[in-house]
From TrEMBL:
Family membership noted in the UniProt record: Belongs to the TCP-1 chaperonin family.
Signal peptide coordinates: none
PANTHER family linked: CHAPERONIN
Record region (Disordered): 9-30
Organism: Halosimplex litoreum
One GO MF term: ATP binding
Gene3D superfamilies (UniProt xref): GroEL (3.50.7.10), GroEL-like equatorial domain (1.10.560.10), TCP-1-like chaperonin intermediate domain (3.30.260.10)
InterPro entries for the chain: Chaperone_TCP-1 (IPR017998), Chaperonin_TCP-1_CS (IPR002194), Cpn60/GroEL/TCP-1 (IPR002423), GroEL-like_apical_dom_sf (IPR027409), GROEL-like_equatorial_sf (IPR027413), TCP-1-like_intermed_sf (IPR027410), TCP-1_chaperonin (IPR053374), thermosome_alpha (IPR054827)
Identification of the protein by name: Thermosome subunit
Keywords per UniProt: ATP-binding, Chaperone, Nucleotide-binding
Pfam family, one: Cpn60_TCP1
Length: 518
């Protein structure tokens, strides 16, 4: 090669290596974590997020905040993905996961400064992660998951979040009722619960609908707007004149030819409508367009038709037991479903169709109300999280004490087991325990307590009583038993939070070379 240098990267590429790369990534991850830290707990603050177009989102939901933020740094995006994963898997604990990931990075930074190798840190963190799962399993409550306990879990997930003028207690009852209605021997079918929002009334008007809500009105003004015990059909295609399957031109040379062609089209459309009428269908849902002539005939015979999408078709099938026909000609009597009632109501300029008490009874809708769009948007997030945590509690392992009590137990267990870990890896295990402490410490700080004093008191109470958490009381907080005071979290939320936070932190710590194209 004659001693000539070999360039394998574009000359405009940027490259950061070694400690500089580690420091940059860790700093970016910590910055994202800090951005949501003040939202944690019952006294957590909200964030106002304003987009380039002026759209405003006000929330303290970690996943929403990080999703709305315009994050460019790749390592920072990894922390955002932690919240996204947490939201997808269990629906709550997103802020917990993001804050823990940031603190794990902070602890790793100190270890790197002390010349602990990144691989050693990663091995220690994964050893500590296994201990964390053990501690969570040990502190799990050995109690039956009855409705009262599930309502407690739902209320805990709503703590510190905006619910308008409706109490968390009432929303929790609605949430548990919804989950119980879609529960079967195999577990909770979470996809069969929908949250539908509509502005124009106070949040206290929120209610559970035993069925589905559809954002449509009948396609013809003269169609009925309400039914009792309707027979319901769904067609997965347009109800219009069929198009030729080949390119062809038709030469119309006389008025008689034109009238014949028009009459043939009208006959075809009339046949579609008559087929629907022969099956005694009261309500027809169509994933496509309905020809005006067909709509007019159906309206004249008191049949309501709606143009909807495939998603609504799935919901209707779960609610009424109908089968979706490929086309109107394929529709048969066995494909029909039924419901207790259908009604079309107007809210401002919007029409909403309520289909209730379907025979299949597998779909329910939480009809959330609010005075403004910001209120309904936040209420939708709150209800979604509550539905997810109740589902997680039933399907994924029960509940544990909240209010920082589980984290105190986890940190204590990891420290007690750290002595059995040899070499420098022990330092990483202990650092993991210190990182977990950030959660009760942040809860204390956001509640108005001195975080250091609170952490000392929590550890002392845990040593003597076996359980201790931070309970918001007035303008500050107190150390008490969260189980007695009804602060509970699903096991799955805690397990997923430590898992996803550890994975993100270790991935970032192992990076020592960043190559970016210009």
């Amino acid at each position: 090669m004659g001693g000539q240098p070999m360039f394998i990267l574009n000359e405009d590429s940027e490259r950061t290596q070694g400690k500089d790369a580690q420091s940059s990534n860790i700093t970016a991850g910590k910055a994202v974590s800090e951005s949501v830290r003040t939202t944690l707990g019952p006294r957590g603050m909200d964030k106002m997020l304003v987009s380039d177009s002026g759209d405003v989102v006000i929330t303290n939901d970690g996943a929403t905040i990080l999703d709305e933020m315009d994050i460019e740094h790749p390592a920072a995006q990894m922390i955002s993905e932690v919240a996204e994963t947490q939201e997808t898997e269990v629906g709550d604990g997103t802020t917990t996961a993001a804050v823990l990931a940031g603190e794990l990075l902070s602890q790793a930074e100190d270890l790197l400064d002390d010349d602990v190798h990144p691989t050693t840190i990663v091995e220690g963190y994964y050893a500590a992660l296994s201990m964390a799962h053990e501690a969570i399993d040990e502190i799990k409550l050995d109690e039956e998951l009855d409705d009262d306990l599930l309502e407690t879990v739902a209320r805990s997930s709503m703590t510190g979040k905006g619910t308008g003028d409706v109490s968390a207690e009432r929303l929790a009852e609605t949430v548990v009722d919804a989950v119980r209605r879609v529960e079967d021997d195999a577990g909770v079918v979470r996809d069969n619960i929908t949250v539908y929002t509509q502005t124009g009334s106070s949040s206290s008007a929120t209610r559970l609908v035993d069925g589905v809500l559809i954002d449509e009105e009948p396609v013809h003004d003269n169609m009925p707007r309400s039914f009792d015990d309707p027979q319901i059909a769904f067609v997965n295609d347009d109800i219009e004149v069929r198009e030729a399957s080949i390119d062809a031109e038709y030469n119309v040379s006389s008025v008689d030819d034109l009238n014949t062609a028009i009459e043939a089209e009208e006959s075809e459309l009339r046949g579609y409508a008559e087929h629907v009428l022969d099956l005694d269908v009261d309500v027809l849902f169509v994933d496509g367009d309905v020809a005006d002539q067909v709509a007019a005939i159906l309206a004249k015979n008191d049949v309501a038709a709606f143009e909807v999408g495939d998603d609504e078709g799935e919901e209707l099938a779960h609610a009424t037991g109908l089968s979706r026909a490929a086309g109107v000609q394929e529709l048969e009597a066995d494909d029909l479903g039924s419901a207790g009632s259908l009604s079309v109501e107007k809210f401002g300029d919007n029409y909403v169709t309520f289909l209730e008490d379907g025979d299949a009874g597998q779909s329910v809708t939480v009809f959330a109300r609010g005075g403004t769009e910001h209120v309904t948007d936040e209420l939708e997030r709150v209800l979604g999280d509550a539905l997810d945590v109740v589902t997680a509690a039933l399907d994924k392992g029960g509940v544990v004490p909240g209010a920082g009590a589980t984290e105190i137990a986890v940190a204590d267990h990891i420290r007690s087991e750290a002595a059995s870990v040899e070499g420098r890896k022990q330092l990483a295990v202990e650092a993991f325990a210190d990182a977990v402490d950030v959660l009760p410490r942040t809860l204390a700080e956001n509640t108005g307590m001195d975080p250091i004093d609170a952490l000392v008191d929590l550890r002392a109470e845990y040593e003597s009583e076996g359980i201790a958490g931070i309970i918001s009381e007035g303008q500050t907080g107190v150390i008490d038993d969260p189980v007695d005071l009804g602060v509970l979290d699903p096991v799955a939320v805690k397990d997923e939070a430590v898992e996803s936070a550890a994975e993100a932190a270790t991935m970032i710590v192992r990076i020592d070379d960043v190559i970016s194209a210009s």
